[in-house]
Write a structure and sequence with these properties.
The structure holds 2 protein chains of 2 kinds. By secondary structure, chain A is mainly β. Chain A contains no helices and 11 strands. The mean pLDDT of chain B is about 90. Classes of the chains: A mainly beta, B mainly beta.
Chain lengths: ~110, ~110
């Protein structure tokens, strides 16, 4: 079936460096994408979203890039901090799926002090 | 103020038992969901309810029965629990069904079947 997946299961970065987490999706009907952060023992927490009519969106220290041609999504975190250590998920949905989110497998980000 | 709250946070039970997980959201959202997260952290939708009406029922054994007494609550009842049901179950809610919007997640219920 169609799915959303990640290239790297674990990413280790030095505090202060920039982090890039990648995600590939296969459903060409996907028109809405979200990045979630999940800390240990907690539920997924919304970071940033992007709709298919955009290719870039910026938040505070985070940027999401969408390349619909190659069905690729990335999350960039600037000046990574220890508090950014978590598992990051990309998720997608499309209007005819009733806003149901399909999640990728997750990437664990580890920030070294 | 907790937006999406689930109880209990931890649940340990024996095979064959019946158990329920409760979920409540105070965000005024119309749509609620149950997701299952396995030991490899993979998150998968189980059910979606909109205004107390079942919208999505993914391939889930019929031992799992969601119940929505009102649009702020979506409880999950599981009959005849099996070892493979051990997972973390997340309740979530979103404002719209037709418009793509973010879903807000609860803290999860870690179910361990022994």
């Amino acid at each position: 079936g169609e799915s959303v997946g990640l290239h790297l299961p674990t990413l280790s970065v030095q505090e202060g460096d920039n982090s890039i987490i990648n995600c590939a999706y296969s459903n060409s009907a996907s028109d809405y994408f979200i990045w979630y952060k999940q800390e240990s023992g907690k539920g997924p927490q919304f970071i940033i979203d992007i709709r298919s009519n955009m290719d870039k969106r910026q938040g505070q220290r985070v940027t999401v890039l969408l390349n619909k041609t190659v069905k690729h999504l990335s999350l960039q975190i600037a000046a990574t901090q220890p508090g950014d250590s978590a598992v990051y998920f990309c998720a997608e949905s499309h209007n005819n799926a009733g806003n149901m989110l399909t999640f990728g497998g997750g990437t664990r980000l580890m920030v070294k002090p | 103020d907790t937006a999406v709250s689930q109880t209990p946070k931890y649940l340990v039970t024996q095979m064959g038992n019946d158990k329920s997980i409760k979920c409540e959201q105070n965000l005024g959202h119309d749509t609620m969901y149950w997701y299952k997260q396995d030991s490899k952290k993979f998150l998968k939708i189980m059910f979606s309810y909109n205004n107390k009406e079942l919208i999505i029922n993914e391939t889930v054994p019929n031992r799992f029965s969601p119940k929505s007494p009102d649009k702020a609550h979506l409880n999950l009842h599981i009959n005849s629990l099996e070892l493979g049901d051990s997972a973390v179950y997340f309740c979530a809610s979103s404002q719209e069904l037709r418009e793509n919007t973010e879903a807000f997640f609860g803290q999860g219920t870690r179910l361990t079947v022994v």
